[in-house]
TrEMBL record:
Lineage: superkingdom: Eukaryota
Protein name per UniProt: Aluminum-activated malate transporter
The keyword Transmembrane helix appears for this protein: yes
Cellular component aspect of the GO annotation: membrane
Alphabetically ordered keywords of this record: Ion channel, Ion transport, Membrane, Transmembrane, Transmembrane helix, Transport
Length: 91
């Protein structure tokens, strides 16, 4: 029975180590996002707009009735969002 407890303790220890690494990576990612936002807030706003628009356009593929209505031309909607909302477009 002692070896089972040791195995469970080892798994718990590894889980805590993994959770700590994930927490640290999330913290570093958040710090990076904040620093980019302080340097140029337009980039963050642009990223949110592109993410939202790509999500909405991707619904054309996920929602079956919309896909049947729009058809194969839905890929052009995605490409339009990508090209039109390019951050450096218009410079």
């Amino acid at each position: 029975m002692g070896s089972l407890n040791n195995g469970a303790e080892a798994i718990e220890k590894q889980t805590k180590i993994l959770a700590g690494r994930v927490r640290r990576m999330l913290g570093l990612t958040w710090d990076r996002i904040c620093s980019v936002g302080r340097e140029d807030p337009r980039r963050v706003v642009h990223a949110v707009k592109v993410g939202l628009s790509l999500t909405l356009v991707s619904l054309l593929y996920l929602v079956e009735p919309l896909f049947k209505e729009v058809g194969q031309n839905a890929i052009w909607a995605v490409m339009t969002v990508v090209v039109v909302l390019e951050f450096t477009a218009g410079n």
